[in-house]
Amino acid sequence: MGDRPLSVQEGTRGSVRHRPVTGDCLAVSQVLARIGDKWSVQVVMRLTDGPKRFNEIKRSIEGVSQRMLTLTLRGLERDGMVTRTVFPTIPPRVDYALTALGRSLAGPVDQLGQWAIAHRAEIEAARVRFDDGGRSDVVALTSQDRAI
Questions:
Q1: CATH number at residue 45
Q2: β-sheet bridge partners, residue 139
Q3: Is 6 exposed, middle or buried (0-12, 13-18, 19+ CB in 10 A)?
Q4: Residue 120: pLDDT above 50?
Q5: Is residue 116 part of a domain?
Q6: Which of 14, 55, 89, 139 has the maximum number of C-beta atoms within 10 A of its C-beta?
Q7: pLDDT per residue as tens digits for the range 7-21
Q8: What whole-number distance in Å separates Cα of residue 44 and Cα of residue 110?
Q9: What is the tens place of the pLDDT at every residue in 45-68?
Q10: What does the DSSP assignment read for 76-102?
């Protein structure tokens, strides 16, 4: 290894102990992948005030395609957060609503959104510093420091 600077991520300073991936970690990752995607969060928040039809949801979410909304609703339904109710009318009417599980997600999602809004200026300032080359995670170490 040369005398290149090492970063905190490489475990040279302030290292965090990494635990082996367990079934719980995998389960959490899968849940976060579902609820952390851009469209799922928006669908959940749109359904907090009651059931909605597909086109009503689509019109309320700027930029979502019909395909992405369909996939998102199916995923939320599969994970037990949304119900899909078909009414036997002509043409058939389909409503989507949050389940109790989905409603329990709305609060944390709203809190996360409030946190993002409250810290938006700090995040933007950090991005500017980072983009301007002011990386704070790179620590130059001497060869003596590396031996520790």
A1: 1.10.10.10
A2: 6
A3: middle
A4: yes
A5: yes
A6: 139
A7: 445 444 455 566 666
A8: 10
A9: 999 999 999 999 999 999 999 999
A10: HHHTTSEEEEEE-SSSPEEEEEE-HHH
Q: Total structural domains in the chain?
A: 1
- Note the pLDDT of residue 138: 53
Q: Which two tokens stand for residue 73?
A: 């609703």
pLDDT tens across 76-102, in order?
999 999 999 999 999 889 999 999 999
Tokens of 43: 């669908």
Contact between residue 44 and residue 81 where contact means Cβ atoms under 8 Å apart? yes
Average pLDDT over residues 124-129: 94
Kindly report the pTM of this predicted structure.
0.68
Give the Å distances, CA to CA, from 17 to 11, 20, 147. Answer: 9, 10, 19
Amino acid identity of residue 89, one-letter, is: T
Specify the pairing of strand 138-139 against strand 82-87.
unpaired
The span from the first CA to the last CA of the chain, in angstroms, equals 15
- Expressed as residue numbers, the domain containing 24 is 19-134
pLDDT at position 8, please? 47
